[in-house]
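User: My collaborator sent over this chain with a note saying "see what the structure looks like." That's all I know about it. Can you take a look?
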Amino acid sequence: MTRRTLGTVKVMMVLGAVAAAACSAPPASDGTVEARRSALEGDAGKPGGAGAGGSAGSGGTMGGAGTTGLSGRGAPPGRGGGPSGTGGGGGIPAVFLQISAPPSVYETQSSTIKGFLQATNPSQPINDVTVTITLTGSVALQPVFMGGGPSAPFVCTPPAVSPGAATVVCHTDTFVAFAQFVVPFTATAAGTITSSVTVTSGGGPLASDTRPITVLKADSADLYTYGYAPGSVFVGFPASVSFYVYNAGPLTATGVSRKLGM
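Assistant: Without extra context I'll predict from the sequence alone. Here is the result:
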């Protein structure tokens, strides 16, 4: 009994000395003693928490001080390592612009450029949005239609034609959700047409797309035929077959004949 009592007294004296040393230890470099206090509370070995604005610690021998970023190698306050750009503020564009255009067309042949515009955050309206569509080269531009979604409708100007270019400007006071537009055009000479679409808000750029369209010289017609016929018929009952000829251009085909044999 005497040996056990003495052993217990020695253990209590050692723990008392450790506690006294911890309380009398000099403060850390930032004026706190959080690391030592956490060790006495039995948090050793736990991963450090997240520092204010920082990332989670990697778990050291003196964990549990994530709020100050001292132990567990937690990030110091104000030095967060999280991803930026959330909420549209760190590189996320306000709108998404997609353009569909033919890589090549024939001269004198009508074609279209199609566009799709979408707000990346439909709950946050974008004010004073302007879409400018410009085609440069030997081209004739027809009126442009643009609309769709719950936004205020885009109002497009008639094509403004200048030597070697044609421009249409579409504008809306408030843009949310999405909008689509179709640009009809006809190339008037072989060469290259450049399509340029820019989107701005209050004069500031939001998105843009520029691409070339090759214009080929029209030197032939493109004819093909197709038809329909019943798979079976009854004896004595009338039946019919239908055949059609189509010209995909670009030139008009002359002297065309179609022969059908039964």
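A starting point for your reply to your collaborator: DSSP finds two helices and 14 strands in the chain.
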